[in-house]
Amino acid sequence: MNKSIVKIEHLSHRYSTAWAIKDINLDIRHKGITGLLGSNGAGKSTTMNILCGVLNQTEGSVLIDNINLREHPIAAKKLIGFLPQNAPLYLDLTVDEYLTHCAHMRLIPKDRIKAAMTEAKERCGIAHFSKRLLKNLSGGYKQRVGIAQAIIHKPKLVVLDEPTNGLDPNQIAEVRLLIKEIGEERSVIFSSHILSEVQATCDTIKMIEQGRVVFTGTVNDFNNYIAPNSMLLYFSNAPELSALKAIPGITGALPTDNGWLRLHFDAAPEIAETVVELSARNGWKLREIQLERSSLEEIFAKLSNKVKS
Ligand SMILES: Nc1ncnc2c1ncn2[C@@H]1O[C@H](COP(=O)(O)OP(=O)(O)OP(=O)(O)O)[C@@H](O)[C@H]1O
């Protein structure tokens, strides 16, 4: 039995002659939050639109909970809630009118609609705006209504295309929290080109660049994608640089402006343990040690360049 809520195999799409995505393979679990990361134009929206049955792929297949989306679109789409990049809101409707319309579209039985709306509104913190026209809501609240329509039928999978785009920092924090709550009981996929966003919200990262998957793994795997090759040390009784350079695996030692020493190494990061041991043995009085990790931007740039090289 396939444990994935989404299984994408050899997915490719071209709008005209150029391929927007090429041979994408993804597996997404039943619970948790997956971040689809990628620069502008990388292919995130194309992938999401195909995944939600809005766009027919040129090649490849999409299974939603083992149901082939192309062969059984209605059954598969019942399992999905989708907030596209531009929320599909009717601005002249009130929140209640709009969500009632969405509930009908989602074929929720008439006697269940009120309860479904109440639950979705409470979840998204918009119950107090039930009678407000959508055009009179702030950007953050419009986005919450967009998320409410995506969860009103309690789908197993919620797909959100750049849900925090255009929001102010407070609204971003609120929407992130909401996404986290939704991800506790179902699978959420959301796209973003903002690294810190994906980092703060997701368990798993899938990164697409130029239509290809260049990374898949946990947030931790992403942060450690480039192994560190330098460390900063502060000694009270610093040794001669030559003593440090003589340690096997150390390729360089340089003082920094603020009294620290930077060691470069080509060995495993565990080389730090050797330095600590030598310091204790030789009375160098090591007070602090820090491995220097690559910034997220450096990792992003390295992964972006992977498809270009
Ligand atoms: N309707 C379309 N017709 C032709 N080309 C398109 C169309 N939609 C997207 N593309 C192209 O397909 C590629 C992938 O676009 P897509 O919108 O999927 O990327 P994205 O990662 O979502 O980008 P963004 O973050 O800017 O929304 C881009 O080169 C884009 O120009």
Give the arrangement of secondary structure elements:
Blueprint: E1 4-14, E2 19-29, E3 32-37, H1 44-51, E4 59-64, E5 67-68, H2 73-77, E6 80-83, H3 95-105, H4 110-124, H5 139-151, E7 157-161, H6 169-183, E8 187-192, H7 195-201, E9 204-209, E10 212-218, H8 219-223, E11 230-235, H9 241-245, E12 250-255, E13 261-265, H10 271-282, E14 286-291, H11 296-306
Parallel strand pairs: 3-8, 3-9, 6-7, 7-8
Antiparallel strand pairs: 1-2, 1-4, 4-5, 9-10, 11-13, 11-14, 12-13
User: In CATH, what is the class of the largest domain?
Assistant: Alpha Beta
What ions, cofactors and ligands are bound? adenosine-5'-triphosphate
- Binned, the helix content reads 25-40%
- What's the domain count? 2
- Backbone shape: elongated
Gap between N and C termini, in Å? 38 Å
Q: Compute the CA-based radius of gyration.
A: 25 Å
Q: How large is the share of residues in beta strands?
A: 25-35%
Mean pLDDT: 91
**What is the subunit arrangement here?**
single chain
Q: In terms of structural class, how would the helical and strand content be classed?
A: alpha/beta
SSE string: EEEHEEHEHHHEHEHEEHEHEEHEH
Described by strand count, sense and barrel closure, the largest sheet is: 6 strands, mixed
